[in-house]
Amino acid sequence: MTALTLSTAGAATLRADALVVGVAKGPKGPVVAAGAEAVDKAYEGKLAAVLDALGATGAEGETTKLPAPDGLKVPVVLAVGLGPVPEKDESFDEEALRRAAGSAARALHGTKKAAFALPLEDASAVTAVAEGALLGAYAFTAYQGGEQKAGKGGKDADKNSGPKQPLAEVVLLGAKPRDKEHKAAVERASVVATEVNIARDLINTPPNDLTPEAFAAVASATAKEHGIKVQVLDEKALTKGGFGGIMGVGKGSENPPRLVKIAYTHPDAEKHLAFVGKGITYDSGGISLKPAGHNETMKCDMSGAAAVFTSVVAVAKLGLPVNVTGWLALAENMPSGSATRPGDVLRMYSGKTVEVLNTDAEGRLVLGDALTKASEENPDAIVDVATLTGAMVLALGNRTFGIMANDDAFRTSIHEIAEEVGEASWPMPLPADLRKGMESPTADIANMGERMGGGLVAGLFLQEFVGEGITWAHLDIAGPAFHEGAPYGYTPKGGTGSAVRTLVRLAERTATGDLG
Question: Residues with catalytic annotation?
Fold first, then answer.
């Protein structure tokens, strides 16, 4: 993990390998942002003009490297775009700062130490820049540089031929190390960013290594390390306990399923949240096999479970006075002679029977069992997180997750929280008329309904397994969970850690009683 420190040193006096400054997009060209005054002075007040001559505009995420002039103790200055100049008496919004810091950190891969002289007006700005830098300084290199790691490169091997390592150290200039709010902001940002990056690692891990059993082992070891109680139900316990949904999905694979419970408790807690995550470590579609072109990234189908796991760990690290229980419904969906067939009927943990019309609609089956189990503890609210439907991606695109709930106020609160922490989301309805499409002549319900509005149909299915009177929300993160395009801001290619920051902020709001 990238090291993060605060410093009162001036931008012109700190020694580092690079110095990051902010540039805004003004009506007549780039405008140097607050925090870079000393740097601009070193350029004799002509930094904006130099950037303009090089074609820089100050647009969001734009990065421009310059050789440092005399008067600075760094060899390189990196100017990063913050977007439009704020209106009078307004500041750069937190997401603009977060994305700018992330873009800068990505541009500095392979660098040891960088000082960030971005606008830091208050503790919220410190949090945003710290988070952005730490999230941008991420790379998944565990499976690269194999010859060097195995010692087979030979004495003449190029030591620089492996992947560039992330920026090693970030120093925030302008923050106040002795200020309690600034110090707390950095500590929180470090915890949250660390857990988001761990979620990314899990999502990016190949499915031949991250089986349900392996995921459960990681969760168990980490939970014990942080004083979180853990319980793992293996295939024998799941069969004996009547978890027909999880077993129905997982029985086609040689890697059997698991249901993992991780429970963080605090002596002063007055509320209890339950987070439930879909953890399909690889989704082939089962007998309803996915076509070529649709299965290559299906290692990411456990992103919901990764988000739930790491958010509970983050809550524990922060010591929040709220009880949070995470449920990881882990299975591998594979075709075989023992796999569930279209037309089979499964008896869920709740006792409800489900006719399986499509084995590629498997996430709702494992979640159904986990939601019922979570409901037995009667938490104040349940939030499930899942890469559930392609329909949600068609509706909202690749960067926005959908929110459904059985309580409009709770749905609104989660939407506001997600927007606050910089995770794009949108509230979605649960139209009662779509329930009719899941009627089955054979079972209590089918796992498929109308094709149009498929993301909403999936939400309605899940609602059937939520305990009576329990507030519940469903986050369909199928779009933003795995980014296949070029990196941007603090978002890398591959696993993103979507929903972790939203869940942590929800726990914080619940702990303080500040949940609308």
Answer: 290, 364
